[in-house]
Amino acid sequence: MRKHIYSLLVAGILSTVALIVAQEVMVNPGITEKTTGLGIEPNIGLNKNSRQAVSNMLNSLLADEYLLYTKTQNYHWNVTGLMFNDLHTFFGKQYQQLAEIVDSVAERVRALGERSHGTMQEFLDNARLKEMPGVVPAAQEMIKNLLEDHEAIIRTLRIDIEATTNEFEDAGTNNFLSDLITRHEKMAWMLRAYIS
Q: Domain of 132?
């Protein structure tokens, strides 16, 4: 009896899904041609080549952001010395902000209809920032390293903003990157304050 009810329930669900798909295809006959493994291709006023180029740019940024996030978290765990408590807390706040940035960059790539990189190998292959495996610098050197990375990202963002405006006419990504500059500039300012 239960198997029969279950079979009827599954058949009903599948029929409903088939009906919804059929209705969508009737309303929008080109939908089957526009689907990819990533879902329905966006129709947002940017051609596929522009969306792919901007997504490649964003995936490189994503790799840098993830590397900086990891480096900041590493320093949070491994800082020592007289400023341990202050820097441990400070680095913790910064890596939490970077986690939000990482997520928003990945989601921007997805909003453009492309795949966000999501593996360590992809991040390492595409990052422009450099890791320091096995090295635990002194506290002041940690601050300087993080400051240099934030400033490098800021410089790259300025170049990418220029490209999204002039080359790809992508106002959405332009605005998104402009907001990221502000966030990185604030984090860099706070790091600079520790060195002064």
A: 43-195
